[in-house]
Amino acid sequence: SGSYVSSTDALELFASTQRMYKLRRLEVSMTKRNLDVFVSAFEEVDDVQTFLLPGIETLVVTSAAAFFASHCPDLKRLVVEDAPSCMIESYIDIPTRLMPLQPRLVGTHLTQLTHFETSANWSADEIAALVLSFPRLQYLHMRSDGFCYRASVATIMELLGHSLKHLRVLKLNKVGSLPDMGYRALWKRSITACATEAQRRVLWAHNE
Predict the structure, then answer these.
(1) Separation CA 97–CA 198 (nearest Å)
(2) pTM for the full model?
(3) Second label for 136, Cα 20 to 30 Å away, from 59, 129, 150, 189?
(4) Residue 106: phi, psi to the nearest 5?
(5) What is the DSSP letter of 125?
(6) pLDDT, tens digit, for every residue of 36-60?
(7) Is 136 helix (H, G, I), strand (E, B) or coil?
C-alpha cells in the first residue's frame, strides 16, 4: 500500500494473531525490505512469549517470511513459495531461509513438521540439513524453478531413504527432466533466462 510500517505494526501482528485462538492456518507474504521492521520489534521486546504463535498448524510464507516457522510451536505443515523472479538474484539456501530472526528462538527445532514444500537448488548439503531438521516428514515436495537439482537422483534417494523413515509422499520434478539434472542443466537454463549482456555478466560473476 506504500504506507509506512514500523516495529509497532510487527508487534501488533503477533498480538492480533495470538488473539485469534482458533486460527490454524497463517499465510504471510513479504519482501526482504520488511525484515528490519521485525528485527527492530525483536530488539524492543525481550519476552519471547510475545512472539510465539501457538495453534498455527499450517504456515504458507514467502522466503523472506520463512523465519515465522520458528514462532509456531505446533506447526505441522510448512510451504515456502515465492512469485516468479529473475533467476540471477542471489540464491538463499533452505537452512538460511528458516533461520530465526528472534535471538531467543535461535536453535529452535521443527522436528514435529510432517509436511514441507519449497523451491530450491536441492544440493546434497541442503538435503542433508533438511532430513536432520525434519525427521518426521511424511510429505515432501521438492520443487525447482529450473526443473533440475544440484544433487544427483541417486544422492537424493540415498539421503531421504536413510533418514526419513516416516515419508509417505515424495514429489519430484517431471520424470522426463531427471536425466538432465545437475548444475550444468541449471547453468544452461539460467543463461537462457538472461536476456541482456548485463544480466549474463552478473550471473557469471555470481557463479564464477
Answers:
(1) 28
(2) 0.79
(3) 150
(4) -60, 130
(5) H
(6) 999 999 999 989 999 999 999 999 9
(7) coil
